[in-house]
């Protein structure tokens, strides 16, 4: 995921100065954004292939189904609370595999 963030920051670093330049040339804000976006895309596509490939690989891995799920702090707390409850009370079973509303 770091590679994706790095590539996104490179593209943003290209976009912002180009947008400012086009805005200062008074082409209008929407055309300035479009022109800057197209130029940032072209420059990053031509000159940052290694970073683009790394970002693509990171995204492919993330959405392949093999990656570990990202858990929020609340989910981690809930899981730890359930684990400690089960450890303290072995006769209690927690079944999170069922969908809500099913028996």
Describe the structure.
Keywords: Membrane, Transmembrane, Transmembrane helix. The chain crosses the membrane at residues 7-25, 31-48. This is DUF4229 domain-containing protein. The structure is a single chain. This protein has helices at 2-24, 29-47, 49-62, 73-88. The chain has 103 residues and is mainly alpha-helical. Helix 1 crosses helix 2 and helix 1 (2-24) crosses helix 3. The mean pLDDT is 87.
The separation of the N and C termini measures 38 Å
Percent strand: under 5%
**Can you give the mean pLDDT?**
87
Number of strands: 0
Number of helices: 4
Structural class: mainly alpha
Rough shape? elongated
The H-and-E topology, N to C, reads as: HHHH
Radius of gyration: 23 Å
The major pleated sheet works out as: none
The helical percent reads 55-70%
**Low-confidence spans:** none
